[in-house]
Design brief:
The protein is mainly alpha-helical. The protein contains 18 helices and eleven strands. The chain has helices at 14-23, 55-71, 88-91, 98-107, 112-115, 129-142, 147-150, 166-171, 179-182, 193-208, 247-265, 272-276, 280-293, 302-307, 317-325, 336-345, 348-356, 362-378; strands at 2-4, 31-34, 41-44, 75-77, 119-125, 155-156, 159-160, 227-230, 235-242, 298-299, 315-316. The strands form five sheets. The protein has a three-stranded antiparallel beta sheet, covered by helices on one side. The chain has a two-stranded antiparallel ribbon with strand order 1-4. A hairpin with a 2-residue loop joins strand 6 (155-156) and strand 7 (159-160). The radius of gyration is 20 Å and the shape is globular.
Length: 384
């Protein structure tokens, strides 16, 4: 998100930053684009990457370039999944676009789940229905655990919210007037594209049609679950991961997630039918616990833990991650040190609260987020 260099207030100048990046030739190696609101920009690898190892440096260089341009307007980029005191009702400036206008008309986008959020999207590929079914099943099991390592939004409206992942909690409620669009964040079990279209996409399109008579939003990206099928590019897009304090942390979480999904995809711990049999209620309960407690969330469903390769009947989400990552080839895992630091010190949300102290005032919060901005600019992890 773009903020004022001094006050850290949001600055709706994404259009001028995107023009400046293009004019300076900084859009050749990474993709930059706008988002719903004018104080947020998206940076991405424009083409699929067979190996994530090169991306942290590439993204960091892009961040440094953007910050150099923003400095000319006394602005800078701020990391994490939410601005800690932005008032969406008062400070939202929407991007002028037919799609975003439709979203605002139907849902009202001047709220935290719309106007004040930043997430990382991780796309994992499949080739056919068989691969789709295995990948979808694996991702379903991992989704509820992701806030345990990725939560970065503990402060909202200027004060600790009581949740480590307030961004995700707000996000899961944004489509309340069309419940089929977001479901329960964790997607339902499906085994083919045809079943996905019949079970998830078609009900969603039918429900929103009376509100979207022009059909502007009736595409697969309307789906607001925590992982959505992108048949336009044969990938499943994971959307529940909070933005971290620097690209090194972002990509470490992406790589760890991909490694664990691959283990489940390969049926290392449980066969496909056992994975698919885990009930939505179970996964939803784990998600809510992870949103609230992050790494300390209690996981106590024995069947779920068995499908993840754990013999225990209850353990913390951090313990689940430690077990799942224990099988990874450490010598090949460039991301291992960052993940070990997160498991040792907690997700960045917990570290932010530790740094801010009990009942922090605005200046204490601002000091923490100035340090986070510096971490982003310098490409280092946040350690209070």
């Amino acid at each position: 998100m773009i903020v004022d260099r001094d006050s850290l207030a949001v600055r709706p100048i994404a259009d001028s930053l995107l023009r400046a990046l293009s004019d300076a030739g900084f859009t050749q190696h990474v993709g930059w684009s706008n988002e719903l609101v004018r104080h947020v920009v998206e940076v991405k690898n424009a083409q699929p990457a067979p190996d994530l190892a090169a991306l942290p440096t590439r993204f960091h260089e892009a961040i440094v370039s953007a910050n150099a341009l923003l400095a000319q307007e006394n602005a800078r980029l701020m990391p994490t999944a939410m601005h800690p005191w932005m008032d969406p009702q008062r400070e939202t400036t929407l991007w002028d676009d037919d799609i975003y206008r439709a979203y605002d008309r139907i849902y009202g986008c001047r709220g935290h789940g719309w106007a004040n959020l930043q997430s990382m999207h991780l796309n994992l590929p499949f080739a056919d229905d068989a691969e789709f079914a295995r990948l979808h099943a694996a991702i379903r099991l991992v989704l509820p655990l992701l806030p345990a390592i990725a939560a970065s939004s503990p402060i909202a409206d200027g004060a600790p919210s009581g949740l480590l992942d307030f961004r995700l909690d707000a996000y899961r409620k944004i489509c309340a007037n069309t419940p089929s669009v977001a479901g329960r964040v964790i997607p339902e079990t499906v085994e083919s594209r045809a079943e996905y279209e019949a079970k998830i996409l078609r009900p969603m399109y039918m429900e929103i049609a009376p509100l979207d008579r022009e059909g502007i939003l009736q595409h697969e990206w309307l789906n607001s679950r925590g992982a959505i099928a992108r048949f336009d590019r044969n990938a499943i897009e994971i959307r529940v991961i909070d933005v971290q304090e620097c690209p090194q942390a972002d990509l470490a979480i992406a790589a760890a997630t991909a490694a664990v999904v691959r283990s489940l995809y390969d049926e290392r711990y449980a066969p496909l039918d056992e994975q698919q049999a885990i009930e939505l209620d179970v996964l939803h309960d784990v998600l809510l616990a992870s949103i609230r407690d992050g790494d300390c969330a209690l996981v106590d469903d024995a069947e779920y833990l068995h499908a993840l390769g754990l013999p225990a009947s209850r353990c913390t989400a951090a313990d689940v991650w430690a077990s799942l990552l224990g099988d990874v080839d450490v010598e090949r895992a460039w991301w291992q040190p960052a993940i070990e630091a997160i498991l040792r010190e907690g997700p960045v949300a917990r570290r932010v609260l530790r740094a801010a102290g009990d009942a922090p005032d605005r200046e204490a919060v601002a000091d923490v987020y100035r340090t986070l901005c510096q971490c982003l600019d310098e490409g280092r992890m946040f350690r209070p």
